[in-house]
Amino acid sequence: MSGHSKWSTIKRKKGAQDSQRAKLWGKLLRFVEVAAREGGGNMEGNPTLATAVQKAKANSVTNDNIERAIKRGTGELQGETYEETSYEGYGPGGVAVLVRCLTSNRNRSAQDVRSAFNSHGGKLAEPGAVAWMFESKGLVIVGAASTSEDDVFLIAADAGAEDVRPSEESIEVITPTDAMKAVRDALEGAGMTVESAELTMIPKTTVAVEGSDAKKVLNLIDELDELDDVQEVFANFDISDDFLASLA
Residue 71: in which H helix or E strand, if any? Predict the structure, then answer.
């Protein structure tokens, strides 16, 4: 499992507190709302909305909240207007960082993101500076306790997956973006526990960092994740599992 995916998994397990859950729910519902606004409220005809709803449900967001977010997006209920924007930069050790936001105020987002980079030894870069270092992929996480790596590989590869990467507690399945749903459905159909399925950005290469640089990188990622306007943060750091576990 990639370093960033591993750290995200650790944080999800730490993030059971009500305040953290409420912040996560707010971001997930914003994603649902924007997906409905841009592609309509019918999930069968709007795969982005289907992905947003699935992700929200996977994090225990209630159906009532999801339905209200869809109605805000389609205009049936009043809501704020959000737009997508992204920022690129470098963290300590030359780690590439890609930040995606959904915001109602671009100036606020830019100021908050810049402040986070400056606070942890990073710096913002020009658009396009690091985006080329990542590829858009589907990421399906399967609980390792529910199956074996070999079984996951056989089912996932047959459904169109590109790669399978095991770790101690889960198995990471990488897919082309248009094959993610088919892979997820195939794994669930085989009785495996799919912990999450989402579109993500996978780094083409990684940068090894350790010691103080590793701590600064993780602090930067955490601060960015905490910003209300930030939806997703992607980075190409490679930090050892033992070091990540020690920080958890």
Answer: helix 63-74
List of residues 6+ apart from 46 with CB closer than 8 A: 35, 36, 39, 40
| Residue type present at position 234 | F
**What is the number of other CB atoms lying within 10 angstroms of the CB of residue 191?**
10
Q: How far apart are CA 236 and CA 81, in angstroms?
A: 31
Per-residue pLDDT of the chain (248 residues; tens, 9 = 90+): 455 555 665 565 555 555 577 788 888 999 999 999 888 999 888 888 888 898 888 888 899 999 999 999 888 888 788 888 999 999 999 999 999 999 989 999 999 999 999 999 999 999 999 999 999 999 999 988 878 899 999 999 999 999 998 877 789 999 999 999 899 999 999 999 888 888 889 999 999 998 899 999 999 998 998 898 999 899 999 988 777 777 76
Q: Token digits for 126?
A: 């020009």
Number of domains in the chain: 3
State how far the Cα of 167 lies from the Cα of 161, in Å rounded to an integer.
17
Global pTM reads 0.81
97 phi, psi to nearest 5 deg: -130, 130
User: Does 29 lie in the same domain as 13?
Assistant: yes
Contact 71, 35 (CB under 8 A): no
Nearest alpha-carbon partner for 175 in 150, 195, 197, 193: 197
Strand ranges of the sheet holding 134-143, from the earlier edge strand across to the other edge: 163-166, 170-175, 134-143, 194-203
Length of the chain: 248
The answer to whether residues 111 and 228 belong to one domain is: yes
Range of the domain at 225: 83-132+205-239
At which residue do the structure tokens 């069968």 appear?
Answer: 44
